[in-house]
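Hi all, long-time lurker, first post. I run a small reading group and we've been trying to get comfortable going from sequence to structure in the token notation. Rather than ask abstract questions, I figured I'd post a concrete chain and ask someone more experienced to write out its structure so we can walk through it together at our next meeting. Sequence below, copied exactly:
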Amino acid sequence: MQSFHRDPRRIRRSLLAKTTVLALAAAAPVAFAADDAAAGGDDVSNLDTVLVTGSRASNRTIANSAVPVDVVSGNDLVGTGKSNLLDALQSLLPSFSQQARQSDVEGNIPGAQLRNLSPGYTLVLVNGKRRNASAYASIGTSPGQSWTDLSLIPTSAIERVEVLRDGASAIYGSDAIAGVFNLILKSSPSEGSVSLEAGTSYEGDGDRVILTANKGFALGERGFINLSAEHTDQDYAVRSLEYRDTYLSYPAINASGNPVRLGSNNSQPAGATPNPKEATRNRYAQNNQGVAEYTTSALAANWSLGLGADTDFYGFATYTARESAQLQNHRLPATIFASNPGLLEVYPDGFTPTIDTDEVDYSVVGGFKGVLGGWDWDASATYNRDYFDLYTRNSANFSLVYPGAKTDFFAGRLDYDQWIGNLDLKRAAESSLLASPLDLSLGLEYQHESYQRDAGEPDSYYGSGAVAYPGNAPGDVAESSRHRVAAYAGVAANLTERWYLDLAARYEDHSDFGDVSTGRLTTRFDFNDHFAVRGTVSNGFHAPGLAAQNLQITKVTPTTSELTARVGSAVAVALGATPLQPEQADNYSVGVVFSPTRSFHAALDLFQIDISDQLGRSSNIGYNAANPNAVVDASNTVLTAAQKQIVDDLLATAGVTIPAGGSYFVNYYSNVGDTRTRGVEFTLEASHALSWGNLRWNYGFNRNLTEFTRVADIPSVLQGLPNITLLSEGGQYDVRYRVPDYQHVAGAYWSQGGWRANVNFVYHGPTRRLSGTYRWEIDPVLVTNIGGGYQFANGWAVDAGVNNLTDEYPSTVPEQALSASSNAVYTWQYASGSLNRLGGYYYARVSYRL
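-- Answer (accepted) --
Happy to help. Here is the structure in token form:
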């Protein structure tokens, strides 16, 4: 593995010469001065796509939709040159952002965010059927949330993606607060293709290879099966940080020639000299910045078979296996010496542990549908499962004897599955009182969920546990399940020729927290054939996940303990924890739509989303008694004797005693407060059939503002303690400013004959951050992506492109925002935001139509 150091403040432009030809070829179509009045539309437009998302009525398109829906074709996804579905969508949709990657387990489970809301508030469907969330529950960026990992679904199997930017719990149930992704799988009975794509970063690392295959086959006169396979191999792209000259790596040498511990911030202690190894140390050993290594193998099948004049058997299945390795903080020789000197024989120059996940995610859906007595009926069963094994590798357990002890550890398994049964009924009823048939829909749903958290091997959790990720301890093991039943109904019709109304209602009863009712009213009024207004009022909810309700993480040393406690555990209850409640939402939106021609469509939508009882994590509660004369809390505030006694008394009710000279801290999930998110979205899409080719272009803009309208009260049992909050100001910032304040996305797509080219711009606005009491912003950045290719008549095609053409990197954290210890360690640090740390990336693809 190569290691590269990169200072993002250094402007690099020499590489741009290599891409000039591609840039000119792709950018030329942007000069679209022609009008489409005589063109009569363009076949490549998405405007006439019949939508299956956002309403149970089946006669809506983007052009006449009553709710904001984006449609992204499979060709557009492939054309981005991105490694997976999640990355591709981020470059195409202004309201969509990818959750900032972490360097721990969460870094292997990317999340999709709509409208600055948690990934847990976005529902994912495949062919209209619910997709499962991950078995992992966040403890960092979105505490308590689990989400569907879109990067696990093979892009080669996707015909299009429909993205509903509106609440839809009344239609689909839990999770659909921010919106819905509906992935429509390919259904061709004959077409197919194979492709090979390869690329690398400007720095020469981060190599990626993607192999895909897709083929459809006819099954009789009314059936098909469409098969897809995809394999992605992504190498590390390492962007190392630089240690300061004054920050030492090795234990110092005292006057007797023996190694001794370093001083504060790894400074040279009095009476000692630097270790001779400092002269040859690796200044860039902190190499966990960049892109993680992973391999993903995925299969998909989509089928339908006519069983008679009025009945079809249909279904689909996907299977994905992914192995990921996430580099963690480098552990220096000085740290090893202070923790377990014997380990220096194993790692004389320190070590960089990795958190590895071997994940399997699969879904199987089967059903029958047909027509009976004037009703369209659909009965289906779905089984979804996600599980992964956790490993901590190239690591150590400082509590074990060295040398000769283990360096690789099995840290445990997380496992989640769900069974879903659906019965949907729908019919169109003629009515003389209405301008269109009344679309009536009814449905029943049953869902059963199970969650399991298994222990790691004993060496992974013994004592202080494996460095970077201690294994799941026996006390952290959990097994839980629940079920729910739901009934839903909807009616939709044109009350007049120009006034459309859509109503939906849903009732759900959960075995663990009771019932929830949701409703939705959507309307659209067309003043004429070119201008309309639309609006929606709805309420929704997000059920607390089984993983959140049962998560417990224990970190123990002989003198210290840190516990993220299961919310129903005795110690959490003693410290004020209460059962998690569903997060409730009220959604409001209003918009205008302008379509002066068949091939031009613009929409402006305003929205407000009020969410109550959002999930979060409490402060660390407890104290450190290493200095008996100055017992301190997690913020290093000295506790009075009375405050220390409050903690001791509360913990005693749970049978916990902090040992003399030891420390013990506990936190837990909780409903922490209410938020209000307001925003504006503007989308524009047009297509032109011109003498020099077909041109399609689009533009989108999104701006969000989130505020806390209520912060939950501190539990009464904790009100005598300092620095106790359910939601600190820093925690509020983490919720309010997950993504940039605003984003622009623009693109142009040109084709003529066998030639094609595209250019895409993504402008990330500033992202606000809070470090201690210092407020600052991540700088805005413009990312440019280009591509082009040629389709030969014999079925072969070649494409090439560049992502992040101008080699943009995240801005650096200002010195005022860094802690004293961070300033003592590094010369600079990257800011954590939506932009990854790969930089510019070239790729080429060869494909063949089957």
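A couple of things your group might point at:
Confidence is low (pLDDT under 50) at residues 1-44.
The domain at 12-243+283-849 is CATH 2.40.170.20 (Maltoporin; Chain A).
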